[in-house]
Specification:
- The chain is mostly helical and 318 residues long.
- It contains 17 helices and no strands.
- Helix 1 packs parallel to helix 3 and helix 11 runs antiparallel to helix 12.
């Protein structure tokens, strides 16, 4: 039951509110903006479209709000204005909008400009299966590599997923992927090392969870146990700690380096004995190694299907 019986002001006609927002001399731009944002989700599409065009023609903060709404309220009528804005600024959010909603023909013509950094992974998701498009796996991080191989129908075994997880952790240890260790606090409730709490690590574990004929869940548990053991061992052995909410840059750097060194020691030697000989900038070498491990397991496997759910225990040396 709603116990708030305070009298509320009646909503003004939305057409009038939009008009006041567009008239920069009305003296009601700020109030109209708040009213529009509050009522937007309940409006008819005719008014939503009018509002989005108005916001796209306004300042950067209003454009940013319009971009966020366009992910859910897209219509091809916005293509010309979004393209014009992108040509001028190439803002990150605009790039994501284009990759998600623009015609494939436009994406193919602008692969290089659209595919910088992790946007390349999103571009691959749209273009996969298109005639002539070949995924450059050297441009994908380990999470996106796993996702792309699964979505393309490529056979991914439990051992393959484990390899990619440890390669991700290895890249953190070698500084390929940066992070800050501000949140590490052994006196808090979460004793997990800061490196192993990174969003990409959590997302990797979530992706693994749903792989395979049951083995994804088992591998997820196995890797969570590895994380707990490594973190507990670090807490016990490390002389570097972060007990305060705020630390100096030197303290944070020392903790981060200690974490990286410790995790590297706990990555199975069947990986580090090979990967430590590689230049971390040469992603092709790591991909080749993953492929060799995959092929070697197939050679020594009598029944591939049984091997896929054996959690990699029979050929763990590869």
């Amino acid at each position: 039951m709603n116990t708030d019986n305070r009298k509320r002001k009646h909503n003004a006609p939305i057409a009038s509110v939009i008009k006041d927002y567009q008239n920069k001399k009305s003296g009601r731009v700020v109030a109209s903006r708040k009213e529009i944002v509050r009522r937007f989700d309940g409006l008819d599409w005719e008014y939503q479209r009018q509002i989005l065009f108005a916001f796209l023609e306004s300042g950067s903060m209003d454009r940013a709000w319009a971009y966020s709404q366009l992910f859910a309220h897209w219509d091809d009528c916005f293509i010309p204005v979004i393209q014009e804005l992108w040509e001028k600024s190439q803002e990150e959010t605009l790039t994501r909008l284009i990759i998600r909603h623009f015609p494939v023909s436009f994406l193919r013509e602008n692969i290089e400009r659209l595919g910088e950094k992790r946007n390349y992974a999103f571009l691959c998701q749209r273009l996969h299966g298109e005639v002539g498009f070949i995924v450059d796996e050297t441009r994908l991080n380990e999470l996106d590599l796993l996702k792309m191989r699964v979505r393309s129908g490529r056979r991914v075994t439990c051992d393959d997923a484990r390899d990619m997880f440890f390669l991700l952790i290895y890249k953190f240890c070698k500084g390929v992927y940066g992070y800050r260790a501000w949140g590490s606090n052994w006196e808090g409730m979460d004793d997990t090392m800061e490196m192993l709490k990174r969003p990409i690590v959590k997302n990797m574990l979530s992706e693994i969870m749903y792989l395979g004929m049951g083995w994804g869940h088992e591998l997820n548990q196995e890797l969570h146990e590895w994380i707990r053991n490594v973190s507990a061992d670090f807490k016990k052995k490390s002389s570097v700690s972060c007990k305060e909410s705020w630390v100096t840059d030197e303290e944070e750097a020392a903790l981060r380096e200690a974490e990286k060194s410790h995790c590297h020691e706990h990555i199975p030697s069947r990986y580090t004995s090979i990967w430590d000989t590689y230049d971390c900038n040469m992603q092709r070498l790591f991909l080749n190694d993953l492929e060799i491990r995959h092929e070697m397991r197939d050679v020594f496997s009598v029944d591939d299907r049984k091997k896929d759910i054996s959690f990699g225990k029979t050929m763990e040396q590869f």
